[in-house]
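Sequence in, structure out.
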Amino acid sequence: MDERRQEAARWYALCATGALDNGAIYRTELHGAGLVVWRADDGRVNVWEDRCPHRGVRLSLGHHRGDTLQCQYHGWRFASGEGACRAVPAHPQASAPPIHVTTWPAIERYGFVWTCQRADGAATAAFPPVDALAAAQSQGCVPLRTTTIDADLASVKHALSAYVLPHADAAECAAFECESGTLTVESLDGAACSAIFVLQPAQAGKTRVHGVVPGEFDVAQRLALQRAHQARLNAMRDALEAAADLQAASLAKAPEPSHAAGAPSSPVAVTMPLVRMDAARSTTSAAISASGDEGGPFTVHLARSGGSVDVPAHTSLLDALRAHGIEVPTSCEQGVCGTCLTPVLDGEPLHRDVWLDARERAAGDCMLVCVSRSRTPTLTLDL
């Protein structure tokens, strides 16, 4: 029996509950199945197959309409809860057809939205308590950014077992698996804060890592913890993916596989550098110093609201937008937290943040407007 069938009744975290704020529609995957997660105006969270039953278009491309989700293609609307079709705009006077979205179990616990797979007609498995997360939630916790890693679940678990916390030596740390696929990493001498990771097998060779740091912290401490753990997770991701690429290249050259047919491959071993809290605090200033001057003036075109904003050489993009009445959600305003992440439709950003990883920077399709600027005379943003 394969791992997917063995774990069919297990509950998995899909996203932090905050990912559904302000009517957001969240797209994700579980064991290769595309899912859409959204919260109706009455607070109910829905996990559905990310496919309109009418013409198969992804519902995650649609629109939040209070207690319904509307498909972008033909505008069919599906009701929160049972997923029944509520309205067809092309036939406003006719009764809605008896068609439903495929729904999945959904529950909110410990700051995450969870779901589980179930066979047709089978009862939903009871959600098991996760003591580590319950204890963390009771004392408050710092959420970590979800990190997607192109590696299988076993390899990610193996790498996390060697995870080194900021401000701790490798020999002082331990990792152990808890309930429902969570993994706790803590310092044996208690000198550093523990972290709890919840693993989501998105698809074959792709795993999402959600995490929290238990404890009450002030704003500066929260940002430092998020930055340090994100640097650590990014290093782990890069090492895992590089090792997987080398393994794939080696297998491609080998005349025959080294393991029996059908046997699972062993986890990829990785080695990662230690990331310390004091190094994390200096990351922002170091990144700015290494990237050269502050950049010259440029113009930003606003794709959704229309109009343009001129950004002088010594004025931040965020300040220039605010001066023209364009509000962007922010938090740290230092390029650390990722709150002001904005899609870039045209032009080349000059990244000054420490939030985006190397591949996200190279893609150039998003930027943190609080600190970043433009390499090109103009930028077009999705604002």
